[in-house]
Amino acid sequence: MLVAAHTLTSLARLEDIVPLFESDPRIQVRYTQVPDALGNDVDQWLRQRRVSVVPWPVERRFDLVIGVSLHRLGDIPANRKMAVPHGAGFTKLWPEWSRPMMGGTRPVYGLDRRSLLDGRGRPVLDALVLPHAEHLTTLRRQCPEAERTAVVAGDPCLDRLVGCAGERERYRAALGVRGGQVLVVVASTWGPHSLLGARRDLLTRLPAELPGDHRVIATAHPAVWSAHGVRQVHQALRDVRAAGVDLVDAGEDWRGLVTAADVVVGDHGSVTAYAAAAGIPVLFGHFPDGEVAEGSVMAALAGCGPRVRDGVSLSEQVRAAREAGAEQGRIVRGRVAARLGVSGEALREVVYRLLGLAEPDEAAGWPAVDVPSLVRD
Fold first, then answer.
1. What does the alpha-carbon distance between residue 135 and residue 58 come to, in Å, rounded to a whole number?
2. Is 127 helix (H, G, I), strand (E, B) or coil?
3. Parallel, antiparallel, or unpaired: how do β-strands 182-188 and 214-220 relate?
4. What pLDDT, in 10s, does the model give residues 219-275?
C-alpha cells in the first residue's frame, strides 16, 4: 500500500487513517512525496517518522494508494485508489483565477470534474470518502460520473477531537492554563482571505483588550509554515508573541489546543468548524463569504456564529460568543459528519475491501492526541 503525501496538511489527515491498519503484518505501508507547491517539510516529516519511502515518480505498481490531495493521484500506478477530504467536508470554492478553465464558474473544490476525472472522463478514484451524505448532492450536480465511487464514512478528525473531551483538563494543564483562566484560541487558515491575512490586528488587540484572567494562544494552518518557512513565521509573528499571544509551533496537532479552549476566534478554515462541532463556542474574526460554498456546513456556521464588529469591545464580543456556543454546536455537529464515532470502523472497512483482505478482529482505534508544543525563544 502506498500513502501519497502532498503537504503537511494532507499528512495530518493521513495520520488519522494509517493507524487503522499499519499494525497488520499483511499490509506493507510505504509513502511517497507527491510534488506540490506547498510540499516544503514533507521530506523532513517522513524522515523523522522513519517510514519507508518510495521516490517520485513512482514506478512500481501498488495494490492501493491513499491520498488527501487529488493532485497527480492519477499518475501513480495502482490497482485501487482512495481519497479522503483534508478538512471539515467540502466547503471551499475553486479560487477566482480558475473561472476561465472552469467554464466561468467556481465549483466546490474536491467534488468537481477537474479533480475527479482523468483525461478520458473516467473517475480517477475507486473510493471517494465523504464525511456526510449531503455532499452527494454536490457530487451529483458537479461530477455525476464519480457518484458510484462515493463512500459516506464519517470524519476521523472530528471523532478524534470529540474523543479528546475527557482529557480537557490535562491539555489545559500541559499548555500552562491556570485554574480559572479563560483560554481564547485564535485559529487561522492560510492565504489573503484568512484571519492572519485579513485581520492580523486581532492578534495584538485581543491580549490588550481582554481581562487579565484571559490567555490567548494562536494556531496557523500548515500551509502558512510551508509557504513562508518556520524561521520567517517565527520572526513575522514576533510582535504578536511580544503582545502576549502564545503560538503553536509548526507541525503540531491543534486538536489538544481546541479541546482546552473556552472560545475559538477563527475564520473559514476547518479548525473553526471542527471547534463548533465539538461544542467549543466560535467567534469569527474574519469570514470571506465569497470563498465559501453556499449551503455548506461552513456557510451554516457563519449564519449563526457572531462576527467581530469594529467599534465594539473585544472582551464583550468574546463573552457573548461563549454564551452562544451551544446553538452553534447544535447546528453544526450533525452536518460535519453523518454520525459520530463510526469513522474508524467505516474507513478501515473501505481499505480492507479495496485490498481484498479480511478485517482484523480487534476494534479500530487511534492513539491519544498529543499536547501541542508552543514556540519558545
1. 31
2. strand
3. parallel
4. 999 999 999 999 999 999 999 999 999 999 999 999 999 999 999 999 999 999 999
Pinpoint the alpha helices (H) of 35-155.
42-49, 113-116, 135-142
As to burial, measured by CB atoms within 10 angstroms (0-12 exposed, 13-18 middle, 19+ buried), residue 229 is middle
Q: How far apart are CA 267 and CA 289, in angstroms?
A: 10
- Cβ count within 10 A of residue 52: 12
pLDDT reported for residue 113: 95
Q: Where in the chain is the domain with CATH 3.40.50.2000?
A: 165-336
Closest by Cα among 68, 65, 40 to 54 = 65
User: 72: part of which helix (H) or strand (E)?
Assistant: none
**Type of residue found at 233:** V
Identify the pLDDT of residue 98: 80
Q: Cα 81 to chain center, whole Å?
A: 21
For 165-336, CATH gives: 3.40.50.2000
Query: Any idea what DSSP says for residue 373?
Result: P
Residue with cell string 455525476: 144
Confidence at residue 264, expressed as pLDDT on a 0 to 100 scale: 99
Of 154, 162, 189, the closest CA to residue 343 belongs to 154
The pLDDT assigned to 86 comes to: 87
Please give the full DSSP string across 95-119, using - where no structure is assigned: PGGGGGGGTT--PBTTSSHHHHB-T
8 Å CB contact between 114 and 341: no
Task: Determine the pLDDT at residue 246.
Answer: 99
In whole angstroms, what is the distance from residue 59 CA to residue 66 CA?
16
Q: Which residues of the chain fall short of a pLDDT of 70?
A: none
For the chain, give the longest Cα–Cα distance: 61
Backbone angles phi, psi at 229, to 5 degrees: 90, 140
Q: What is the CATH number of domain 2-158+338-355?
A: 3.40.50
By C-alpha distance, which of 22, 73, 24 is closest to 51? Answer: 22
Q: Could you give the count of Cα atoms lying within 13 Å of 2 in the half-sphere of its Cβ?
A: 27
Question: Tens digit of pLDDT for each residue in 47-94?
Answer: 999 999 999 999 999 999 999 999 999 999 999 999 999 899 999 998
